[in-house]
Write a structure and sequence with these properties.
The protein has about 400 residues and is of the alpha/beta class. The chain is about 40% helix and about 15% strand. Helix 3 runs parallel beside helix 4. It is globular. The protein binds pyridoxal-5'-phosphate.
Length: about 400
């Protein structure tokens, strides 16, 4: 029986062709086109989303200050904050959303807070208007600039009250690996309006990131391997390899006890990534339309189903994942696997509860802890025959 994968990039011969055919100036072209698509004037591409966050903190010259981020988020975010020489400070999720609780955010901002990472988890937009009000108030209270950074690694094009969340704050960053809504094979990008920030980021990148001779070839091989891996009969075998742990070097991205970055985190972006990104950008509107259709189908079908609960998903959600909360996650995964459907578990940890961050008090993050143990996500990638899933 063929297994329906939990995720699948929306790539075809166009991305393969883009990867192969050389062109001039692909990186700046991609940076500008990508920034404009998401409501900003400029962009700087990096080798990962976390490298973009790290670089922003560095060019703003933030050192040994508190940078707030969600407790329930991808652990690479506090890693980038810590490795930039700053202190990640966690805020718990709210009772009705996977995103940060705004009341707790307000109470957590203190005199040492100099930046807040606003993560729109699973594609779900936060109330960016309210967040800006909180920041303005706290800036006045403490007399400090507090940078607002939108983490849209999951939420390309998410809107709050009809306006792109990436239009708010000082900058936004995206991850562009193969599991994201749009991909450039690997990669990440920071987008913003500020001309001076543009200059600083480009200089920082030039001085601190290295060129890597084989990067283009490695990315090409990875793209072709991905293309083949998601073919239905092959995917079942890939899944077997994954379950046996043979693919750990590709799929396991963190170690409970270590704060680190991948070995290529500080390499320069390559033209192949930018060309693939440009091909993907053309498909953005279709990708979101299909994701939203899948989400509407699941919401409708699953709302009456016993044993699964959904939190608030406001409109403007671009559904990188369609996530529910279940009591016994293992049972759900096994039940669906028997039907040939792979459900996903995306963030199965709460950052402040991880050994690497045990210096933070873990009992203060009950929602993050709860969500980390009970979320599952349904395959909602563009092109999935979701009617066959439920
Ligand atoms: C919420 C969130 N923020 C940031 C990132 C960082 O992106 P990258 O893996 O490209 O560094 C991720 C990665 O998946 C993520 O899930």
């Amino acid at each position: 029986m063929n297994l329906i994968p939990r995720l699948k990039p929306y790539i075809n011969y166009k991305e393969l062709l883009a990867a192969i055919v050389p062109s001039i100036g692909a990186v700046p072209k991609f940076e500008r086109a990508f920034a404009n698509k998401f409501g900003r004037e400029r962009g700087t591409m990096f080798s990962h989303g976390r490298s973009a966050l790290y670089s922003l903190l560095k060019v703003w010259k933030l050192t040994n200050v508190e940078v707030i981020c969600p407790a329930y988020t991808c652990v690479v975010v506090p890693h980038a904050i810590h490795l930039s020489g700053n202190i990640p400070v966690f805020v718990d999720s709210s009772d009705n959303s996977f995103n940060m609780d705004l009341g707790k955010l307000e109470n957590t901002i203190g005199p040492k807070t100099r930046a807040v990472v606003v993560t729109h988890l699973f594609g779900c937009p936060m109330d960016v208007v309210k967040i800006q009000e909180i920041i303005d108030k706290k800036e006045k209270e403490y007399g400090n600039k507090i940078y607002v950074i939108q983490d849209v690694a999951h939420s390309f094009g998410a809107k709050w009250e009809g306006k792109l969340v990436t239009k708010y704050g000082d900058a936004a960053f995206f991850g562009l690996n193969i599991s994201k809504i749009l991909t450039s094979v690997f990669g990440g990008i920071a987008i913003y309006n500020d001309n001076a920030l543009e200059k600083k980021l480009k200089i920082f990148r030039k001085e601190n990131m290295e060129s890597s001779f084989f990067k283009g070839l490695k990315r090409l091989a990875y793209l072709f391997a991905t293309f083949i891996a998601f073919y239905p009969p092959i995917y079942s075998f890939i899944n077997w390899l994954e379950r046996k742990g043979f693919l750990n070097s590709f799929t396991v991205y963190y170690n409970e006890e270590k704060i680190d970055m991948p070995s290529d985190w500080n390499t320069l972006p390559c033209a192949l990534e930018a060309r693939v990104g440009l091909a993907q950008l053309k498909k953005y509107d279709r990708i979101i339309e299909l994701r939203q259709q899948a989400a509407a189908f699941y919401s409708n079908k699953l709302k009456e189903k016993e044993g699964i609960k959904f939190l608030d998903y406001p409109s403007g959600n671009t559904y990188s994942h369609f996530v529910g909360l279940v009591e016994n996650r293992k049972q759900w995964l096994e039940k669906y696997a028997k039907k040939g459907i792979q459900l996903g578990i995306l963030i199965e940890y709460s950052c402040p509860h991880m050994k690497a961050y045990k210096y933070r008090k873990s009992e203060d993050y009950p929602n993050s802890s709860n969500y980390s143990q009970h979320t599952i996500n349904f395959p909602n990638w563009p092109g999935i025959q979701y009617q066959n899933i439920l």
